[in-house]
């Protein structure tokens, strides 16, 4: 017997050490992924794949895992398909004081919605990510958030709102000495100034972007700067920039061809303009083709070739209408997505309003009861005063009948009148006291209602936390494991916390054995009889008989196993 006991203890100790080791391993993997994610996101993603069952992690570790996983996928440019996982991280960090991870969670929820073509939702999430910007010192994160908000405003043609966000992005990337970040943010800011007609500011930021870009990445900036120089009438500088853009990019660069065609149109070289514009119309971009056909139409009209001009104009109008239809379709889809989001928010608001309405109804009922009490009190004192006045008349008649002396009669009348005044004053005083009592009682009732609501909410949270806790789920799961004494103790402790000292109150009803107490605890945790028999190494029939016996033991009368289960669930 002693050897068997020692063997069981050794086995349970091994299980505990194995569980602790696995938990430590998963925490170590999360830390490793967090260190790698800034510069080696692909390696961080491989490390995170080593955590096979993230659902077994604690809520904090789960939120951290899904945040890191989403960040790694985004940096590896893996297309996003759903925001359900990052929503777990958002829901957790929203109720914490961790400003950095909270902002990251909102940012990546915005990134996913932007990839899913829901820009209005993405914009809302980006703005939420900046709610606590004063507590965040991560310039890279703040730079990306501001840059994406600025781009979304730019795509919506709201340039005056895009400008301050792009300026913030340039500031944060500059503080980080991130040359590529400064280059892209400066280029985006220059585009905003260009569209707003502030050409000098646009030129400054385009030239700033060129200072930081290298290699083929200068092609887009050079082409856009060349287009800006054309608008400013600086044709030589425009030509240099466009040629530079062509030399930096050996592939087909249709926007540069369009800019070159525009340049040669301005310098009155129609042959070269037509050559480059004909190359630009081969672009897969509808916007580039539209601009090319528009310029070709103008050139042919100036040259007097009206037939070609009309043909180019027809192509231009077809593309213009196609783009307008596309923009309208996208706008409708975005508006529908925002409507769905607002509808969910409205449902939540309606639920809150319903709860508030119920509280208001209870308050009005309380006030009505107090009003009835006040009216009854007033009627009582009114009757008392009338009775007093009747007594005064009675004494007057009685005094006359008994021939009371004039002095005595006047004295009695004076006394009665004084009593009337005192009663009137008492009535006023009582009314004021009653009003104060009503006010005080109303405040007490409102406070009691709040305390009851808080207690009820706290109890529901405790019960929900217990039913969804790892120890409770582990006991309900049908798998090959035997709970240790520590597991049983943890289950009882969580039950006591969730259900107001459940085991202590149960023991006071009757002297329960260890097995009987365990069965009661498992029934309270919604564990099925089949799993209970497995956990306690006995048959299902034995579990059923024990439940019947427990019911009789507690109530001193016969009962079924189901009656015992109902009693435990309500206890």
From TrEMBL:
<dbReference type="GO" id="GO:0006355">
    <property type="term" value="P:regulation of DNA-templated transcription"/>
</dbReference>
<dbReference type="Pfam" id="PF13424">
    <property type="entry name" value="TPR_12"/>
</dbReference>
<keyword id="KW-1133">Transmembrane helix</keyword>
<protein>
    <submittedName>
        <fullName>Tetratricopeptide repeat protein</fullName>
    </submittedName>
</protein>
<keyword id="KW-0472">Membrane</keyword>
<keyword id="KW-0812">Transmembrane</keyword>
<dbReference type="GO" id="GO:0005737">
    <property type="term" value="C:cytoplasm"/>
</dbReference>
<keyword id="KW-0802">TPR repeat</keyword>
<keyword id="KW-0677">Repeat</keyword>
<comment type="similarity">
    <text>Belongs to the Rap family.</text>
</comment>
<dbReference type="InterPro" id="IPR016032">
    <property type="entry name" value="Sig_transdc_resp-reg_C-effctor"/>
</dbReference>
<dbReference type="GO" id="GO:0003677">
    <property type="term" value="F:DNA binding"/>
</dbReference>
<feature type="transmembrane region" description="Helical">
    <location>
        <begin position="363"/>
        <end position="381"/>
    </location>
</feature>
<feature type="coiled-coil region">
    <location>
        <begin position="406"/>
        <end position="465"/>
    </location>
</feature>
<keyword id="KW-0175">Coiled coil</keyword>
<keyword id="KW-0732">Signal</keyword>
<dbReference type="InterPro" id="IPR051476">
    <property type="entry name" value="Bac_ResReg_Asp_Phosphatase"/>
</dbReference>
<feature type="signal peptide">
    <location>
        <begin position="1"/>
        <end position="19"/>
    </location>
</feature>
<keyword id="KW-0963">Cytoplasm</keyword>
<dbReference type="InterPro" id="IPR019734">
    <property type="entry name" value="TPR_rpt"/>
</dbReference>
<dbReference type="InterPro" id="IPR011990">
    <property type="entry name" value="TPR-like_helical_dom_sf"/>
</dbReference>
């Amino acid at each position: 017997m002693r050897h068997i006991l020692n063997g069981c203890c050794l086995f349970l100790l091994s299980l505990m050490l194995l569980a602790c080791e696995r938990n430590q391993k998963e925490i170590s993997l999360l830390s490793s992924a967090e260190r790698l994610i800034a510069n080696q996101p692909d390696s961080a993603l491989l490390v995170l794949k080593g955590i096979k069952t993230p659902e077994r992690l604690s809520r904090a570790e789960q939120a951290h895992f899904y945040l890191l996983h989403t960040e790694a996928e985004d940096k590896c440019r893996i297309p996003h398909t759903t925001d359900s996982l990052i929503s777990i991280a958002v829901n957790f960090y929203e109720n914490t004081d961790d400003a950095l991870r909270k902002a990251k969670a909102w940012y990546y929820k915005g990134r996913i919605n932007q990839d899913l073509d829901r820009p209005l939702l993405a914009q809302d999430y980006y703005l939420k990510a900046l709610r606590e910007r004063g507590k965040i010192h991560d310039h890279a994160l703040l730079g990306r958030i501001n840059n994406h908000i600025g781009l979304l405003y730019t795509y919506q043609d709201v340039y005056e709102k895009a400008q301050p966000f792009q300026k913030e992005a340039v500031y944060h990337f500059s503080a980080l000495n991130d040359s590529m970040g400064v280059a892209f943010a400066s280029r985006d800011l220059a585009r905003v100034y260009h569209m707003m007609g502030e050409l000098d500011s646009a030129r400054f930021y385009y030239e700033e972007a060129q200072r930081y870009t290298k290699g083929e990445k200068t092609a887009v900036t050079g082409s856009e700067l060349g287009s800006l120089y054309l608008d400013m009438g600086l044709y030589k500088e425009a030509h240099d920039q466009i040629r530079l853009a062509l030399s930096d990019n050996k592939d087909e660069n249709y926007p540069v061809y369009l800019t070159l065609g525009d340049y040669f149109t301005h310098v009155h070289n129609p042959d070269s303009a037509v050559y480059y514009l004909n190359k630009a119309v081969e672009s897969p971009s509808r916007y580039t083709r539209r601009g090319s056909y528009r310029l070709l139409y103008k050139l042919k009209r100036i040259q007097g070739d009206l037939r070609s001009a009309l043909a180019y104009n027809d192509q231009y109008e077809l593309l213009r209408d196609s783009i307008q239809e596309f923009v309208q379709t996208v706008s409708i889809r975005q508006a529908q997505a925002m409507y769905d989001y607002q509808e969910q928010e409205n449902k939540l608001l309606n639920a809150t309003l319903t709860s508030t309405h119920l509280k208001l109804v209870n308050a009005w009922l309380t006030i009505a009861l107090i009003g009835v009490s006040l009216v009854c009190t007033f009627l009582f004192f009114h009757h008392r005063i009338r009775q007093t006045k009747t007594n005064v008349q009675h004494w007057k008649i009685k005094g006359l009948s008994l021939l009371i002396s004039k002095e005595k009669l006047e004295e009695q009348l004076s006394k009665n009148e004084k009593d009337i005044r005192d009663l009137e004053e008492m009535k006023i005083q009582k009314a004021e006291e009653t009003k104060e009592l009503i006010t005080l009682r109303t405040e007490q009732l409102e406070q009691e209602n709040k305390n009851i609501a808080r207690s009820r909410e706290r109890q529901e949270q405790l019960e929900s936390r217990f039913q969804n806790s790892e120890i409770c789920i582990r006991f309900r799961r049908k798998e090959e494991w035997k709970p240790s004494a520590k597991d049983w103790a943890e289950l009882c402790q969580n039950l006591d916390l969730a259900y107001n000292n459940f085991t202590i109150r149960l023991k006071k009803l009757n002297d329960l054995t260890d097995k009987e107490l365990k069965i009661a605890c498992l029934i309270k945790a919604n564990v099925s009889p089949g799993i209970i028999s497995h956990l306690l190494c006995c048959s299902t029939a034995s579990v059923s008989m024990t439940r019947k016996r427990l019911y009789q033991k507690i109530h001193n009368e016969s009962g079924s196993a189901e009656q015992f289960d109902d009693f435990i669930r309500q206890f």
